[in-house]
Amino acid sequence: MSDFIDNSASEASDTDSDEEAQGAAPAKASPQRGSPSNSSSSGSGSSTADSSEEDEGDDDGEVENLIDDAPIVSEGEDSDADIGKRKKHSDEDDQLEEDDFDLIEENLGIKVKRNKRKRIKVMSDDDDSDKEQSAENEAEQVANQLFGDDEDEEGPVDNDESSQQSAKAAGEADDAYGNLDESEESDPDDFIVDEDGQPISRGRKKRTVVHTDKALQEAQDVFGVDFDFNEFEEYAGSEYEDEEEEEDEYEDEEVDGEPTIRRKKGRHSKKTIFEVFEPSELERGHMTDVDQEIRSTDIPERFHLRTLKVAPGDTQELQDEADWIFTHAFAKAPFSEQEALAEDRKDTRAIIKKINSALDFFRNQQLEVPFINFYRKEYVQDELEIRDLWKIWQWDEKWAQLRTRKQNLVKLVGRMQKYQYEMNSDPDVVLPSHVRPIVQEDIDRVRLVETTEEYWDCHNHFMLYYGRDIQAMKDAEKKNKEKNPKEQKAKEPEDLSKEKEEGEEDEEMDAEKAEEEEVPQETMKYARGRNSGYYICVQNRLAEAAKKFGLTAEQFADNLKDNYQKHEVEQYPVEPLELAQEYIGSQFETPQDVLNGVRHLIAMQIAHDPIVRKCIRTAYRERAVLKVTPTKKGKKEIDEQHQCYSMKYLINKPISDIKNEDYLKLHQASEEGLLTIGIAMAEHAGGPTYFEDIRPLFHRDEFSALVQGWNVQRSLALERALTKSIYPQLEKELKLCLLDEAKQGILRSCCDKLRSWLRVAPYQAQHEFDDEDEEFDTSKGLRIMSIAYKTERDVAGFACILDGEGEVTDFLRLPHILKRKTPDDKDKSGELEKLKEFIQEKKPHAIAVAGESREALDIQYDIGQLLKELEEEHQFPKISVELVDNEPSLIYAASKKSAMDFPEYPEMLREAISLARKLRDPLTELSQLCNADEDLLCIHFHPMQEHLNKETLLSLLYLEFVNIVNEVGVDINDALAHPYTAGLLQFVCGLGPRKAAHILKRVKTQGRLENRSQLVMVCQLGPKVFINCAGFIKIDTSSFGDSTEEYTDVLDASRVHPETYEWARKMAIDALEYDDTAEDANPAAALEEILEKPERLRDLDLEAFSIELERQGYGQKLTTLYDIRAELNCRYKDPRAAYKPIEMVERFNMLTKETPATLYIGKLVLCRVSNIARKKPQGQQLDEANPEKSEETGLWVCPFCRKDDFVEISEVWSHFDAGSCQGSAIGVRVRLENNLNGFIHTKNLSDKEVRNPEERVKPGMTLHARILKIDIEHFRVDLTCRTSDLLDKEDRLRPPKDSFYDMDAEETDRKQDEKKEKSKKRTAFIKRVIAHPSFHNVGYKECERLLDNLGEGECVIRPSSKGPDRLTLTWRLAQGVYSHVDIKEEGKENAFSLGKTLFIGNEEFEDLDEIIARYLQPMAAFARELQSYKYYVENSGSDDATPGDRSIMDQKVYEEKKKAPARIPYFFSTSKELPGKFMLSYMPRDRTVHEFVTVTHEGLRFRGQVFSTLNTLIRWFKEHFRDAIPQRLVTPSQAGSRMGPPTFRTPGATPAYNTRGGSSAYSYGSSPMSIQGTPQATPTLMTPSYHTAQQGPAGTPSYRTTPRIGGTPRSGQTPRSGQTPRSGQTPRSGQTPRSGQTPRSGQTPRSGQTPRSGQTPRSGQTPRSGQTPRSGQTPRSGQTPRQSGSTPRYHNTRPNITPRSNTDTDWGKMAAMWAKEQKQKKRERGEGTPVYQTDRK
Asked: What angle in degrees, to the nearest 10, is found between the helix axes of 727-758 and 610-623?
């Protein structure tokens, strides 16, 4: 309704001064409220057009004709001459009647003097109240004339006076409005015209846009800001409709060229508002006839809106209904487990009396729930709460619906009984076998129906037997009425007959449609049509055969009900097949067909019996279990991210174990075709089924062959009734019940969440402000500042400030609010400075920040810093900065209402305003979403709320508003002064959006509401509505002061209801011990005094007062008296909970937009790598650092950050000293899709050990990971991306599965799917039509068999499994080794032909012959050249070995190396693992290295280079085998392998393949899952690592063992302590041996150490024991080297570094001397040749 009525006080500033003088409460107008007038409407007024142009006009013309200025005359008073006279005289158009004056008064808000027919004279302030009262009386008389019983109409008025009145009225209107902008064009739609019919030019108010709809806005422009469409309904009645025919004639006469402007002013056919607007617009604006009826009727609005109206009930009916509601609404347990509904169950029968009282209040006294809950507590509490009362209200409607249906069905059954009596009245005629007489028991059964299911059971039972006779019954009744019309009329009064006829029609309609709406057609087809199976059986006399079964359906029902064979089965003495011979006919040709038909007939009768269905329904629901299986689509789509993952396979799950919304999830998956849901009766293993339990009740207990034969037929009939009819229908019923319970639980959850928001009291300052500080005075309310922003950087944020009344006073644009504060960023610094000045100037009491994202925390921190500066610089008090959920504010900012409220403000500023108001008062702000657009439903209350019925959800959410609003109360004058609070009034008890808008309009004409009695006098409320709403509308009488002459009662500002005012006054007088019988007694003064001294009320004996009131007939009022006393102690105390700052969990959910259901431990997430997390080494770690030298590059490597570009070891120490070492990598920092920070520890990167994460992940890389831990305080999660965790085969991290999960079924389906996938792969190609000798339509296996019989280099071209535009060329390299080449086709004529252009990679070919000649044959030639080479090993040296077996090649190379250690043996072999490549195996020293040579049509590719001949390749290899292998060819697992006996290493050789591992991680056809580390299984290229006896970080060798004799140290390398260099080895350049190691340059070495080059000892230092002393240093005694196992190794403490000297040391010579010395020591000890230890640390 808010879209169609004026915005009341928000636009009071636009009204004229005369209106303000009338006492209207003006509100602070926002600067954006105004907008320029519509130019199109202005332009149309100054021009005329012909009739065709008028027909093509828009809604402007329609709106103009809504009101006609001509007088309303009675029908038939105008003659044709009068019509012609009106056509000639235009001055008759301007006269006004009383209703016109009344409309102008209400729309302009002023009083108009009406003497001598003068128009729109504005009353001045000096007019006395008597004239005002008389004007009001006149308005009421006109309203009564329009809407009351008096339908008299005024006659025509003298037309000569109207022109004079029009001119004078125009002048008075100019005086009233004052001088406005003359540049604005006058409105052509103005109904004030001059004598010529032209609009009178006068000043106008600035056009205010209040409607988004064009038609509505035009209407608003016509009738002013205070225009209300509801008033049109008063004038769109029969008066105008009566004139329609007359005006149509006049319109025809005007075609001859009458000026358009005169026609516009009402001289054509009048259009009602129902003709102008669409029905949907009328309903949206509450402008229909029904809405007008709701406004005018003295019944609470919510009573009107119920589908079935509230009807009075007698005592017995109320008692029956109370028992029924208690049984079904409170005592009955739900089928599933619903936590939200658990508290609703009340087992005590003591509440039946309370329910009865509540029903009496509803139905007989028309009191609404809030009134009962607050003012009739004695009758409903403590057993019933307000939620229970609403539940009773809802179930009362269900009771009314069921009762109506029962009554209609009883009437229908009675009519059919009467028809049967008339048709079978002859006692001598035997009834046909299929006719079932209706007895009184059938009617009584309908009357005893308790549930909807039982009603449909009776209905379907009736339709089975009598459905085909309904039409005949109606025809018979019609004939009887035609024969005896007078007799029928005498028997039944007209209204009763009409009511009965309507009831019959309704029931017949139910009979027609009920089957389709409620009952499955395949199971509950009643035999009404001639084509139904039941009717066919009846027509063929099978009903007679059915009686031979010995037991009717009714008798079986009695047996089943009592659970024993109450009725014995009568045995027919003939065999079933013999009996069937008698009924063979055209439709049943064999005895078996007859028996099938008879069984079907009996099954239908049993299945439709109400008692049978009731008994089986009870057993079915007790034993019902759930079974869930996925469909083919569901198997693929339901993964662990799906909400049904844990319930994908279910078996034998009792329905009582279904929790909350689980069934709704299953139902939605079923609707999407993902799951199949079945409900059946539980069958206990080895126990009897339900059918077997009840079968004896339909059997005869004898063992003769005859009886057993009949028992078989009875069993088949009973089984058919159960399986084909009853079970399917009961399954559907139960599914609907489970679905409804799940939805009810979600509805309750949504309401609970909304209630938690609404029950928060208005914000109170978290810090105390100095009372003497006037700038921060809180007596007039709190000033709230808010900041709203969006995460998009290009959208500016806004800050706004609200005054104490919630109105906007100023705002600030913040375009750089999301930037991080840096010293160089002037934009951010300047913006913060402006924000600081804004806060300093406006002095808010609190600041709200929108909880849009994690950036809100940064904004909160920045504002906190600004406030600290203000506290220090300007002695600001402490101001709280609160994070506020901005979801409702976002919805309001995007709504039509906010666009009308603040049309000039951007959406972000509107969000900031709403945010501040939400913090100020959540109830008021959320009520703005309760509008015609239903914006409240846009709030996300529950993840599954979209599956609920929107109307049901909205109505229940509104009830929460009703509950809280009536607890708090509504100040109606505040709603007028501040329109944004007006939305609360619709939730007041007894009111609604229609009545609330009507009240506001009435109060606005008065100016304000000064006492509650004016609700009746001014607002024209009836007694029922007034009683319901009066106590919840508060009037702040203290704000009036002396400005009113009306009587004000202090109780009007309290919750005390007017019906108990006298009791409150009595309590005040008694508490003050005044004499209420004295003549000068003043109860009002006593009340004012007691409000100042409420403690005096404690001495009152309220129990005695209650007893006295009960004696006087007022009933139980003790609780009411206590409430009055509490209210006098504190009037309208807010019962809502005080505001609390947001908690940590709520803050996390709000800023991340996650919930426990969407973010949980074990969830699979996608994350993007940000950087590598490192830990810097500390002092002791630096001292103990052990830099190592890379064997590949010869450079030194930092042991922490793994930087490997240091030429000398001294540079590593300088690297430490400069602080440039980033430290060891401890993990990977990532960012989730929801902007949460994540961390993956190094140990969680891969199942394998990862020492350097940079080798496996790079910044920007996307990873799959699982959540291990959620840190809500720091907005961080710990993740794992190990392959084992991602697969999670043991279900440690996946969501837990249901306890009734069917693991066996899942495993069976998995195996079947794998089997199907394998079978698909075998035939995964399309047969092609290609004529070429090498092409064959075969698969891979058949292709191998063909090539087995061909020679090397031969090929087969075949279809590809990649698609119809691909071919595969498979050629033979060696026995069992086949290479596959992918050929892409382009220019295909069809899917089966060969493409005109062929591509291999980027190379183009014309046909297959060219491919063979130019691509395949060169490759085959190179392959043959390799295979004919002298060092080529065919089949790896063994007939049964796999080609390219590395272990065999290792052995062969080792044997050759053993024969000639000085040589470097090498061999070629074919690789089956990587077809198309040949493996080159060689041993440069003591390890076998494997590299690959790729055969291409251009040559042999090796190490990235292509060689045209094999000799060229071998020559280059011999020269460059020591070179480092290109990094792209090195894999993480490539390394040399050791073979038992001593092996040798050639200096400078770089191994390229790991023979120990057996396979490479390099991606030549390897499975992605074999590469662990990143969840996406992307191969990562790493620096070569060498797995020697001991490895340091990244695989750099660190020897602990003694080298073998014969090994030569690398150039410049000195062995460590305890190591003997290999024979002929030279230490590496720049490497210093430990324990006997040469110290750094300029440093005095320790025992056995040699100083480094350029180092000299420091002065004043004494060397340690065994160490050459530094200059002036005394050595310490007793020091010995630290032991490491059996080999001494000095603690590698970093020595002090002194400035380098200019002296260079010959490191090679010193290393040779050291090696010789160590060798000599070994021999002296008698040790033999040392053996290389292969064990690793």
From this structure: 60
* 1470-1479 per-position pLDDT tens digit: 888 888 889 9
**What values do phi and psi take at 1229, rounded to 5?**
-90, 135
* Selection from 1506, 1487, 1488, 1486 nearest residue 1496 by Cα: 1506
Tell me if residue 1496 falls in helix, strand or coil: coil
Q: What pLDDT does 1724 receive?
A: 58
pTM of the model: 0.66
pLDDT tens-digit readout, 1364-1415: 888 999 998 888 888 999 999 998 888 888 888 999 988 999 999 999 999 9
Provide the edge-to-edge strand list for the sheet that holds 880-884: 808-814, 797-802, 784-788, 846-850, 880-884
DSSP 8-state assignment for residue 329 = I
Binning pLDDT at 50, 70 and 90, where does residue 270 land?
A: low
Distance CA 1023, CA 1018 (A): 13
Q: Which of 1272, 1284, 1271 is nearest to 1243 (CA)?
A: 1284
Cβ pair 1501, 1493 in contact under 8 A: yes
Instruction: Report the SS3 class of residue 471.
Output: helix
Tokens of 604: 């239908």
* Encoded amino acid at 557, one letter: A
In terms of Cα–Cα distance, which of 57, 97, 59, 70 is closest to 268? 70
Decide if 230 contacts 286 (C-beta within 8 A). yes
Bridge partners of 122, per DSSP, are 112
| H helix or E strand, kind and range, residue 1457 | helix 1446-1459
Rounded CA separation 352/1290 (Å): 54
* Helix 662-671 and helix 727-758, axial crossing angle in degrees, nearest 10: 120
Can you tell me the distance from the alpha carbon of 1729 to that of 1686, in angstroms, rounded to the nearest whole number? 17
DSSP conformation letters of 1666-1684: TSPPPTB-PPPSS--PPEE
- Residue 370 confidence (pLDDT): 94
Q: For 764-821, how does the pLDDT look when each residue is reduced to its tens digit (9 = 90+)? A: 887 776 666 677 777 788 899 999 999 888 889 999 999 989 999 999 999 988 888 7
Neighbours of 195 (CB within 10 A): 15
Q: How confident is the model at residue 735 (pLDDT cuts 50, 70, 90)?
A: very high
Distance CA 466, CA 474 (A): 12
Q: How far lies 1302's CA from each of 518, 630, 650, in Å? A: 33, 11, 5
SS3 labels along 956-1014: HHHHHHHHHHHHHCEEHHHHHHCHHHHHHHHHCCCCCHHHHHHHHHHHHHHCCCCCCCH
CA distance 216 to 227: 10
Alpha carbons within 13 angstroms on the beta-carbon side of residue 241 total: 10
Q: Cβ atoms within 10 A of the Cβ of 325, count? A: 24
Place of tokens 């199949």: 676
Sign of CA dihedral 473, 479, 481, 484: negative
Geometric angle at alpha carbon 1665, from 1664 and 1670, rounded to 5°: 40
Closest CA to 265 of 247, 287, 238: 247
Q: For residue 1335, give Cα distances in angstroms to 76, 1329, 1369, 1414, 1461.
A: 100, 9, 9, 17, 51
| CB hemisphere CA count around 87 (13 angstroms) | 20
- pLDDT tens for 1601-1635 read 333 333 333 433 433 433 443 433 433 434 434 43
Where do runs of H (alpha helix) occur along 224-327?
230-235, 238-242, 244-253, 260-262, 273-276, 279-284, 289-296, 301-305, 315-325
Residue where the block lists tokens 């009924």: 583
Q: Is the peptide bond before 248 cis (omega within 30 degrees of 0)?
A: no
For residue 1538 the two structure tokens come to 């050791």
